[in-house]
Specification:
The chain is α/β, with parallel strands linked by helices. About 15% of the residues lie in helices and about 30% in strands. The strands form 10 sheets. Strands 3, 6, 7, 8, 9, 10, 11 and 12 form an 8-stranded antiparallel β-sheet that branches. It has an 8-stranded mixed β-sheet with strand order 21-20-27-25-26-24-22-23. Strands 28-29-32-33-34-35-36-40 form an 8-stranded parallel barrel, surrounded by 5 helices. The longest helix is centred in the last third of the chain and has 18 residues. The relative contact order is 0.09.
């Protein structure tokens, strides 16, 4: 288990004391400033690395001088101050450099709580690390505190950003002076900040050498503990000159038609703008080519603003992509013809694109009983629907395919359909020249037509098209570019049948997912988990169009939470599992393979292949260098020495430890084809407490080894880089990071550094049966959770939906405990916990 943290509401809205002015036309640098209440923050996408303060500075005594010079930090020459939605698109405001990070600037405070909360930390350029902040004395008799910047010379100040560590300042002001004796107020506040991040634009720029945040009163409420903690705490203070530019980035207008290309918005010189992605890249690819669509769709577009070599992301802009060919309407009535408007998709079933035909079709169940032992567990049996008359009625009794790659997909679907229709559905391969007949469901790979090719005829890797008797009477066709796409089309047809209660509308629909990773992961290391349960989980994931099943193959009891004698020898006796058959043994012949239950290489390889037929990619995870008691039991000299609680961690100072990990991966990637059926592997890398520099070096070495051994595979690992405090610039940005804890990995930092991100945040996506987290919070998941949002008690991170590096989410089940209230946790109990949130998460990860 990774430590789970409770999540609370925590937004990042900004507010300001602003005056309203009339706006001018788009592109004019003097466009009027808009009121900033409720404005969302804009994150800088520049790959900035802020230097951590030297160990000698951190060790300074509390008696050190309170005035400390701030070393000049690398920072962008300009940045987006705000980007606010307006009727025309986005109103963008920019500022120059943060004056506090310039060489001559110094910070002073009236008091400091201690050496760990010095004034200098509020000007170190790091507003995310809560350990690096200024905090005043906790003086109950005196609430008058200030944090002052001395710029060394007179400067012009027009905008201020404050990152409050705690929003308890009840009365405060921004003040300026030329001589540090005579102070004037630039802005005054008589209420506590609404959010921790506060942006303030002064009504008029001021000239001053000294500028300070002056707090005169704080909240004193017992409910939020401010009665007891009356000190003022600021994460970061940023001071800028006046707003430099203000202009509108207009929403792109896309017209109907074929072979369309996105036209970039215009921005004033010296800025330039480029397209950087869409939440549905199926609709708009990175070259700006727009797919032909059969219905109006909505898309969020991402853009990069550039000036003087500095690039910054803008928030996504929503726009409509109209159908390529417009449906003729009655111009006087301005509505779709009645025959078409009457044909809708059933309640509870949605698709990105739907083009109805002129009638309603009915798939009529024959009423023939199928023996229960002939119906797959994956088939969902529904009662025959009450049918109404329609233009055509037929029975679909055959699933046909042309390409041999689709044979198993067709067989799986026919088995499922038999259970739904309560009639025998056969499977046949069509000859190249053979045409489908009435009653056929045709599975086929989509082929580009016309001269548009991939420009206009793409469905992406997982999209599909359902043609419901729109072209051939009595024939349904499912087409896609890939086997997985065809599988999702089969699943969709089953869902459509169920939602429509047996009455299928005729027409064409297309659908495709918004998120590329839609997954679940299960820990099979800490307790035996049967392969039968894994198959059952894969089948259920498939029925919900979830494409990832992560198998955490090795782990052990959490030593710190276990009952043992406190010795290293005792810790090594705790339960540990390595669930996949391995030939790795020590000199005494002892194997790392679990003896109570393990998966043979052959059956695990078959499971990967079978899951792929269901559309589910199995992602095998071998977790090192921590959680490795199954290895250090067999190779005790390769474990960390010292604290008994570290015996499950490899001693990375020993080259043999890395060699052991490489040997294990070689067994499955090079010496056998166990992992040949998957495109993704997971190399662990979480919660290591040994030397952190060596840890990062190990990450690079092992990921490089796996990449060389299997260059066609994607590599995933747990996010641990932020907490190491080390230089990780040498790590490949092709590695996908699974973020489970924001202390270990700041998702924004990792995104800004160029990594692709998967949301597995423990506070919202961890199941720990018997450990206090038996069930996910369904209400939170339904009403608030989003795959690109990482919400904790301290703050909320939101990554762009439109970015190809915001991948999706994977919820996890950790088997830390074998029982609950004295009762064994059964595999049925594990399945119930897995299945409970599946429908909500699947819906949110598809759309």
């Amino acid at each position: 288990m990774k430590e789970k943290k409770a999540g609370k509401d925590s937004g990042r809205l900004l507010h300001a004391d602003r005056r309203l002015e009339d706006g001018k036309s788009a592109g004019d640098k003097s466009v009027g400033r808009r009121h900033a209440n409720g404005r969302h923050a804009v994150r800088v996408s520049k790959f900035l690395q802020v230097a951590v303060l030297a160990a000698g500075v951190l060790g300074m005594s509390a008696a050190s001088q309170s005035m400390t010079e701030i070393s000049e930090k690398e920072q962008p020459l300009w940045q987006v101050w705000s980007a606010e939605e307006c009727d025309a698109g986005l109103t963008v405001e920019t500022v120059g450099e943060n004056l506090i990070l310039q060489k001559k600037a110094k910070l002073t405070a009236d008091s400091e709580e201690g050496r760990d909360f010095r004034a200098m930390y509020a000007g170190d350029g790091n507003h995310t690390d809560e350990t690096l902040r200024w905090s005043s004395e906790n003086d109950w008799e005196n609430n008058d505190h200030w944090l002052m910047a001395d710029f060394g010379e007179s400067v012009s100040i027009g905008a201020v950003r404050i990152y409050w560590e705690r929003t308890n300042a009840k009365g405060y002001a921004l003040e300026y002076s030329q001589d540090k004796e005579n102070w004037q107020q630039a802005s005054v506040f008589d209420e506590a900040p609404e959010q921790k991040e506060q942006q303030i634009v002064l009504n008029e720029p001021v000239e001053a050498r000294y500028f300070r945040l002056h707090v005169t009163d704080v909240l004193k409420e017992e409910s939020d503990l401010s009665l007891y903690y009356q000190n003022v705490s600021v994460q970061e203070l940023e001071v800028y000159g006046q707003l430099e530019d203000c202009f509108v980035v207009e929403t792109p207008v896309i017209e109907a038609g074929s072979r369309r290309t996105l036209e970039l918005p215009t921005v004033p010189e010296p800025y330039s703008i480029s397209f950087d992605g869409a939440d549905y890249d199926v609709l708009v690819n990175m070259d700006g080519k727009i797919t032909d669509t059969i219905a109006d769709t909505q898309v969020e577009l991402g853009f990069i603003l550039e000036k003087d070599g500095e690039m910054q992301e803008l928030p996504g802009i929503q726009t409509k992509i109209p159908a390529s060919e417009r449906v003729e309407v009655d111009r006087e009535r301005e509505e779709v013809p009645e025959a078409l408007s009457a044909v809708t998709l059933p309640k509870g079933f949605t698709a990105m694109e739907w083009m109805p035909a002129s009638a309603t079709g009915v798939i009529e169940p024959a009423g023939q009983e199928i023996p229960s032992d002939e119906i797959s567990e994956a088939a969902h049996v529904v009662a025959p629907a009450t049918l109404s008359s329609s233009d055509w009625t037929t029975r679909f009794i055959r699933v046909v395919y042309r390409d041999e790659e689709l044979e198993r997909t067709a067989q799986l679907f026919a088995t499922e359909l038999s259970g739904q229709l309560l009639q025998d559905v056969s499977v046949e391969k069509l000859a190249d020249t053979e045409k489908p007949t009435e009653g056929d469901i045709v599975l086929d790979f989509r082929k580009a037509v016309g001269d548009g090719k991939e420009w206009t005829q793409t469905l992406g890797d997982e999209g599909y098209e359902l043609n419901l008797e729109a072209e051939s009477p009595g024939v349904i066709s499912i087409s896609a570019r890939t086997k997985r796409g065809v599988r999702w089309g089969c699943v969709a047809l089953g869902q459509l049948w169920e939602k429509s209660e047996g009455q299928l509308p005729t027409g064409v629909l297309r659908d495709y997912p918004a998120w590329s990773v839609r997954g679940f992961g299960i820990d099979v290391g800490r307790r035996p988990v049967s392969l039968e349960l894994l198959y059952r989980i894969a089948e259920e994931l498939s029925k919900h169009q979830m494409n990832t099943l992560q198998i955490h193959l090795n782990d052990n009891q959490i030593i710190s939470q276990s009952d043992y004698d406190g010795t290293k020898e005792g810790a090594r006796q705790l339960y540990a599992g390595f669930r996949l058959e391995s030939d790795v043994r020590n000199k005494a012949g002892q194997s790392i393979t679990s003896q109570d239950l393990y998966y043979s290489k052959e059956e695990f390889a078959q499971f990967i292949e079978d899951a792929a037929v269901m559309g589910v990619e199995v992602v095998p995870e071998i977790d090192t260098p921590a959680h490795s008691l199954a290895l250090t039991k067999v190779f005790p000299k390769l474990g960390l020495s010292g604290d008994p609680e570290s015996v499950d961690q490899l001693d990375l100072s020993n080259p043999a430890a890395q060699k052991l990990a490489e040997t294990i991966w070689s067994e499955y990637l090079i010496e056998s084809d166990v992992f040949s059926g998957t495109g993704t592997v997971h190399i662990g890398m979480d919660e290591y407490f040994g030397n952190q520099k060596v840890f990062v070096d190990y990450m690079k070495a092992l990921s490089d080894y796996v990449a060389e051994a299997a260059p066609e595979k994607t590599i995933r690992m747990w996010g641990s880089l932020s907490k190491t405090g080390q230089d990780y610039s040498g790590l490949s940005r092709k590695i996908q990071l699974q973020v489970w804890d924001t202390d270990w990995t700041d998702p924004q930092e990792m995104y800004d550094a160029g990594f692709s991100i998967i949301n597995s945040l423990s506070s919202s996506l961890y199941l720990i049966p018997g450990g206090g987290y038996d069930h996910l919070d369904l209400d939170f998941l339904e009403k608030k959770w989003q795959p690109n949002v990482f919400e904790t008690q301290e703050r909320t991170w939101e990554l762009p939906r439109w970015s190809s590096r915001t991948l999706g989410a994977c919820y996890m089940l950790w088997n830390d405990y074998a029982s609950q209230d004295g009762n064994e946790i059964t595999e049925d109990g594990l399945f119930e916990r897995f299945a409970e949130p599946l429908d909500i998460l699947a819906r949110k990860l598809w759309k």
